[in-house]
Task: structure prediction
Amino acid sequence: MKNRRSIRLAEYDYSWPGAYFLTISTLGHRPMFGKIRGEEVELSRQGKIAEQCWHDIPKHLATVEIDAFIVMPNHVHGILWITESRPRSIAVGAQHAAPVQPKRPRVDPGTLGAVVRSYKSAVSRAIHQLPANPNLGVWHRNYYERVIRDDRELESIRTYIVHNALKDCADLKFQEQMETL
Result:
């Protein structure tokens, strides 16, 4: 396996309490989560699963809260809050929907990476249970994150999520129109 350059902050502990902005994309940026209808996203069954699993994050991970988010046809934008940092010695045990793949590097429980891994795994498992989707690849390998540093940035990102959804709707609708020509 190639050594990939990490996109994470080198000296930052992603289990620290705070707000994090995420973008998680589908494999190949396929629009599997829905279609654009006007200025709205009409979620597919897979998109409804992605939405429900996002809502379920705090049910499975007591130290995580959700904030603004949206499921788009080929990605999810959202803000997650880690509300308390658990000492590594306590952060052991089963993880909600963690994939059973021992060859992958260990992701420490209680970190943002563990939350994203759990979410992606829960969505994938539920989608694989749908008819005709047993081996469907769902997610792009990585995800984009940004540590939210202050209230002004938090409000700006919340606004971005709402307005970017409208922009994404317009962009995807244009792409769909071009594909039919």
